Amino acid sequence: MKGSSRNKDHSTEGEGTGKRPKRKCLQWHPLLAKKLLDFSEEEEEEEEEEDIDKVPLLGADGLEQDADETEDDESSEQRARRPMNAFLLFCKRHRSLVRKEHPRLDNRGATKILADWWAVLDPKEKQKYTDMAKEYKDAFMKANPGYKWCPTTNKPVKTQSSTVTNRKKLWAFASDSAKDLPSPRRVTKSEEMPQLNFAMADPTQMGGLSMLLLAGEHALTAQEVSSSTCQSDATNSMETCQKSSLFQFAEISSSTSHSGSSDLTKQCGTSALFQLAEMCLASEGVKVKEPGKTKVEAPQDVGEAAAEEMEVEELEKTIIKDSCKGQVEQSEIEKMQNWDETKAEESEPTKCRDFTSLAMGNSPFERNDSTKDHMCCSPELSMGDMNILGLKPEKIKKKKKKNKLDRHTNEKSTPKKPCKKRQSSESDIESVMYTIEAVAKGDWGAERLLETPRKKTRPVSNVKGSVLDTKSPKKKVKSKEKKTSKEKPAETTKESKPPDFLSIAASKEVPCEASDNIKVEPLTPTEEVVPQSLPEQVKTEDSDCVKKIETCGSRKSERSCKGALYKTLVSEGMLTSLRANVDRGKRSSGKGNSSDHEGCWNEENWAFSQSGTSGNKKLKRTKPKEEFGFGKNSSVPRKKRKVGSGSSEQPKSNKGSCQSKKKNFFYKIVTKCKHRKQKLNVPDTAIFSEDRISSESAWKNKISISALNTPEPAMMHEPLVGSQKRKARKTKITHLVRTADGRVSPAGGTLEEKPKELPQSTLQKTSSAETDCNSECSRNAETEESHSITSDMPAVSAFFSLAALAEVAAMENVHRSQRATPLPHDGQPNEMSQAPVLISCADQ
DNA sequence: TTGAATGAAAT
DNA sequence: ATTTCATTCAA
Fold first, then answer.
1. Which of A9, A279, A380, A491 sees the fewest Cβ atoms within 10 Å?
2. Is A130 within a domain?
3. Which nucleotide is closest, CA of A151 to its C1'?
4. Within window 99-138 on A, which residues have Cβ closer than 7 Å to strand C?
């Protein structure tokens, strides 16, 4: 009785009714549980293919009547609740088990796991549940002929079709009344009575709704019992935990990858910088692929998890059987009888025998529930589940999240694929788990960092933000985070994956922006290198900043810093590019600039081609550049970055400091840019202009705030270190700038090296832009440097500049890793100085 | 009250 | 296509 009311009526429940029903249910549970168990077993043995007919008949009548009759129970079930679908039945059956296995998991997490299981579930078993659901629905519909799933709010009372309207009203009304009144039953009953009359008032059938609810509860109780029994098996729980983690991990990875791609595309479209957007898109494609790989691994893990789950289920089944042994046979017989009876007609409460004490028997729903339970409990089902689980991959979840269609396809296809993978890779899975965990630690930071950058990036450049942001749809990210927080190992693994993806994406982003194809490859290596380098940096440089999170934090910090720098660069570059375009339009009436955009595009293409051909070489070259520029200074900024990264996990303090620094730095740049823009009158970068306008507030809000950093404390801390850091950054930036400058000034030389692709026009543009920037930016060294960067960026072309920036970021990372060891690139640095830009571009 | 899942129904 | 809502129950 109450069960039904409690189900829903959350609002009402909250206060009284809802809770009461639960309690009542609890009371009912013992008896019901037993019955359910019996039924479940019976059902298990039997396969209820034919049951449907019977059930509906019984069910049809009775919902309301039952409610009325059952008035005694507290809940009145005024309105009928729509029957549970197959998945809900499945969830109801297995939720308790899942929760037992994963105590930490909340229902949401359990639901996700259940969804995974469902995805993996054998078609046969799934079909059983589906059949059950169908039967249930049929019965329900019979009971409530006019019932509509979606009570159209419209349904106005008005009209002639009193029956339908009444029913609807009754449904709605009943629900309302139930909600409103703690003891709404009677009221509803009075109302319901007419309905019953319309629909069909079979007193015997009356109990349907309540029965259904009760049955559900019973099922739950039964589950609980089974689960409790199962819990005794520690090993099983352990296994399942791992599985769950794996599943989660897979899910996360998939979700991240998906989200990223979608966001990227969207943002790209929206972003003012089309070029960047395109870049992002290209990068996305790459990213997606990589995540896919990771996913593949995850699925294997999932498969193992599934297998474990299978075991658990088996255990449960066995337990249940044991408990129910005596009754099982009877129950089976009864079931058969019940089914027959139901088919024959509901009039006979065959169930009553089983549930007689409960008076559940009458309602077909009960049967359904029992069948559900049975399904769950049934060894066959469990076996099938086990098989399915083993076979199917968890990836499906991720896919599901992203795209339902994908999910379905995956689910369908998955069973086989995952099984194979899983089977092959238990050890692999473990190794993967370890790797994942290890990565995850870093990734966590990376994710957070990424997230912060995302936020920052968003305001700065839509494209970047889009890339990162896209993946972080609230739901997925939040859920993931929640899960991670809840579960320890599993969470870490899960989260780790997403972070990895994110980090990858971030790294990719940089290259992608700069240049899609080539960049991506270099980036991944950079990423790998970075983590290693980071710890070193941390040790050497910042004891303070690094604090606790060293490795993880360092990774995060680096990534975050990179991302922030890159973003900022991009943003600037965008601005500069816009300026350059404007200037071009003015200046370059004659040269190849004729199509600045084309030139840019050409550059991009060029970059791609080069990157594809000689990405590695270029990267190496770039590294030396960084060494020059950064040399010692790099360490400081790195620290800062690290700090930022470290803060990422603890966004408030750490991030705040790093971000604040960055903010300041960026702010300066921005201010300079503003001046430039004002001079140039570049309307193109609305975002950027906004940032300028907002100035500090805007930055904070958009960038830093988004990042969650606390700007003030960070600002406070920064001054001392910040100045140094800024210097370091400047130097780094100068490097970048220099490279760009070198590229520009030596453009001819650079062109010589790889002159083909770079359009002269772009070079000229860059040079002009640089000159402009230099003149404007000369105010502060920092500002100048930043400006120079920006100027350089525009001069070359947004794309090119972006690519250069991306490379720089990558370079920095690599360089960091390398810097500890004096690179043999001495010659290269020179080259860098001379024609670094080209190289960088090529790399990108 | 929300959310996490899936699915059936309705709009 | 999108919305509604069925179950569960911790935040």
1. A380
2. yes
3. C4
4. 99, 106-108, 111
Query: What own/partner pairs with CB < 8 Å and gap ≥ 24 does A399-408 have?
Result: A399/A254, A399/A258, A400/A115, A400/A119, A401/A251, A401/A254, A401/A255, A401/A258, A401/A475, A401/A476, A402/A254, A402/A255, A402/A257, A402/A258, A402/A259, A402/A262, A403/A258, A407/A119
Per-residue pLDDT band for A78 (boundaries 50, 70, 90) equals low
Residue A140 near residue A82 (C-beta atoms within 8 A):
yes
Strand C and chain A: which residues 449-488 have CB closer than 7 Å? 486
For strand B, the positions having any atom within 7 A of a protein Cβ are: 1-11
pLDDT tens column, A685-720? 342 323 332 223 332 333 232 333 333 333 333 333
In three-state secondary structure terms, A150 is coil
Q: Is strand C in 7 Å reach of the CB of A214?
A: no
Q: Give the CATH number for residue A139.
A: 1.10.30.10
CA dist list (Å): A493 to A429, A441, A633, A771 = 12, 9, 36, 50
A408 in contact with nucleic chain C (CB within 7 A): no
d(CA A531, CA A551): 7
A289 located within any domain:
no
**Residues A720 and A660 sit within 8 Å (Cβ to Cβ):** no
What was the pLDDT predicted at A408?
35
Taking the C1' atom of every nucleotide in all shown strands and the CA of A110, the nearest one is B4
Show the tokens assigned to A228.
Answer: 């409790």
- Report the domain count for chain A: 1
The boundaries of the domain holding residue A105 are 82-144
Residue A111 has pLDDT above 50, yes or no: yes
The pLDDT value recorded for residue A724 is 54
* Statement: residue A92 has pLDDT above 80: yes
A111 CA to B6 C1' in angstroms comes to 10
**Residue A46 placed within a domain:** no
Check whether residue A29 has its CB closer than 7 Å to nucleic acid strand C: no
Cα angle vertex A589, ends A588, A591, to 5°? Answer: 65
CB less than 7 Å from strand B: which protein residues? A 10-11, 13-14, 82, 85-88, 91, 106-108, 111-112, 114-115, 118-119, 130, 133, 137, 148-150, 152, 154-155, 397, 400-401, 404, 407-408, 475-476, 478-479, 482
Does some domain include residue A125? yes
| Separation in Å: B5 C1' and A704 CA | 34
CA A438 to C1' B2, in angstroms, rounded, equals: 33
Instruction: State which residue has its Cα closest to the C1' atom of C10.
Output: A106
